[in-house]
Amino acid sequence: MSQHIHAHSFLPYLAREVNVGGVIIGGKQPIRLQSMTNTPTLDTEATVAQCIRIIEAGADLVRITTPTSQEAENLKNIKATLRKKGYHTPLVADVHFNPDIAEIAAEIVEKVRINPGNYATRRTITGDISDKEYHEELEKIHGKLRRLIDICRRNGTAIRIGVNHGSLSPRIMNRYGDTPAGMVESAMEFIRMCSAENFHNLVISLKASNTRIMVQAYRLLVKTMLNEGYNYPLHLGVTEAGDGIDGRIRSAVGIATLLADGIGDTIRVSLTEEPEAEIPVAQKLAQLFPRKSHQNPDIYLLRNPFVHEQRTSQPILRIGHPHPPIVMADYDPSGMQNTNITPEPDFYYLTHQSHLERVDPNKQYILNLHDWFLHARNLPNVYPLYTASEFDYYGPKHADVNFVIFAADDMRPTLLESIQQHQQRTIVIMESFASGPTEQREVLADLLKKKIVSPVIINRNYSSDSAEDLALRAASDTGLFFVDNLADGLWIRNAGQISSEEIINIAFTILQASRVRTTKTEYISCPSCGRTLFDLQATTARVKEKTSHLRHLKIAIMGCIVNGPGEMADADYGYVGAGPGKVTLYKGKEIVKKNIPSNEAVDELIRVIKENGDWIDP
To answer: Domains along the chain?
Structure first.
């Protein structure tokens, strides 16, 4: 355990305010929301129409891809048309490959996004690079960046330094690899150059499709900036999050974990859907974390927040390290009779003793102490659940106590001492009316202080009739416990009109998004933009239809090569747009088939999976 790490090394964090065309980002301003167009930028009419839909959905900024100088020049027409129609939302140019294009765009729009990975002067590096060579390249980059800074200063244009985990420069990769430390240094080099030019109209982002890498990178960036005297606003986002409930949960796990720490000033939820569909999701996440002063969580006094070390837990009934986190669910006979739930929860909570009639000897159940004592004491696969008061009275005397449940604000010294003396218990930390993730983290801090190694299950209770709302709320409330390796199980309960199958799916998806347990095919799919070379939504749907039973695989569907090969680095197979109507297929990081006609590419992907022995018949 890393006792030397202190929370004040990166919290609390209050960003300076940055003006982007009249929209202030940072400080105590509301969290600003944005999305990105996916129309061809040279199609002025279509791009303007989509900008309007994004704006009317509630966006504070709209980003537009500018891959060439032609698109950059056409930003004039797009902006003029929007202003003529009465829309004054700031526009952001998204620049890739050629940094010179940013100089054109900076004369037109209110903000330009540049990727430090595209400013590299050397495309490949073999062998170690010397300090002299490293700094010589930085000097060349500084000279190129100075031109952009001068244009931005003259026009009042802001810059987003947008680092992507999938497109770090060869120089950074050579020295740091594709690590959070490499992402942070990539951003800090550009921050230092801008500071040297006395230019501070900056927003910073460190995006990744892996939520753990994303969270670790942002925390490390905040610590590094504060150590060097900087406090620029932060743009949050999980790249290539996907679509549907999966995409929403993955975005919420990454973004909410940081918002809970008080990190984040503007967010973009990247979904493989229409861009305007991203804004309501971003609004819901922002509403869960109103701007306020965040105090240092005690948990960061006891654990290193910059690495993903596992909380030590003593396994009980295959709950606890080294076993993956479990899912517990309410047993609902009416909702489960005709449903083949896959995967099934590890434990069912029997909400009434009458459900004992339906107990399957091959499954595991939990029952309230009173009913267990009267009706299930001799059943080997049904375990008692003690409340805090029951544990105080009975627990220390009984060897058959398996589960203890209490509200976060019930953690009193006497209960903590009892648990410390009798650690062969699985602890269920339930929310109370006043508690949330903060209070549950405080309980975990108390357990760490007392060196209690009992497994911990996080329980949250909701009353929602919307699966999307439940998914966002549950992922925001619980994802941080699994990203930080603090908990050993998840139990989501809901009193609304949502099926048991959907609730169970949400729980397993939160664990998968947090990178602690894989139970279904994982899709890494980008949100599409004007660079996309095929119908991404339709293609993603076709790929899912053919491969969703391959639960042991990660499959990436990427619209173009800008971030594709990098962001899908840990995917087993990749499907990447290579040109108009052409697709390149990857096995891991290696190209296996190039320039396949897009109408044949899904079938060809399946052939590649079969050829490599990874196919399983449905």
So the answer is: 7-301 (3.20.20.20), 310-513 (3.20.20), 522-611 (3.30.413.10)
Please give the torsion angle defined by the CA atoms of residues 359, 407, 288 and 294, in that order, rounded to the nearest 10 degrees.
Answer: -140
- Using the structure block, give the residue that is written with the tokens 């950074």: 172
Q: Quick one: how many helices (H) and strands (E) in the chain?
A: 20, 23
319 DSSP assignment = B
**What is the tens place of the pLDDT at every residue in 517-547?**
988 887 776 655 555 555 677 777 888 888 8
In 130-212, beta strands by DSSP E = 158-164, 202-207
Share above pLDDT 90 across residues of the chain, in percent, rounded to a whole number: 55
- Residue 557 CA to residue 576 CA, distance in Å, equals 6
What is the gyration radius of the CA atoms in the chain, in angstroms?
Answer: 25
Q: Per residue in 6-44, pLDDT tens? A: 444 667 789 999 999 999 999 999 999 999 999 999 999
Bridge-based pairing of strands 582-587 and 573-579 is: antiparallel
Of 296-305, 378-387, 416-425, where does the model show the most confidence?
Answer: 378-387
Q: Residue 465, Cβ neighbours under 10 Å: how many?
A: 11
Q: Which residues contact 567 (CB under 8 A, 6 or more apart)?
A: 164, 165, 166, 167, 208, 209, 239, 240, 524, 526, 556, 558
Provide the mean pLDDT of the chain.
87
Residue 295 burial by Cβ neighbours in a 10 Å radius (0-12, 13-18, 19+): exposed
Q: Which residues contact 312 (CB under 8 A, 6 or more apart)?
A: 321, 453
Spatial CB neighbours of 527, under 8 Å, sequence gap ≥ 6: 36, 38, 240, 241, 270, 271, 272, 273, 275, 278
Q: DSSP states of 335-400 as a string?
A: HHTT---SSPPSEEEESSGGGGGG--TTS-EEEEHHHIIIIITT-TTEEEEEEHHHHHHTGGG-TT
Tokens of 326: 């479990």
Cβ pair 596, 583 in contact under 8 A: yes
Q: How far apart are CA 271 and CA 294, in angstroms?
A: 29
In terms of residues, how long is the chain? 618
What pTM did the predictor assign? 0.90
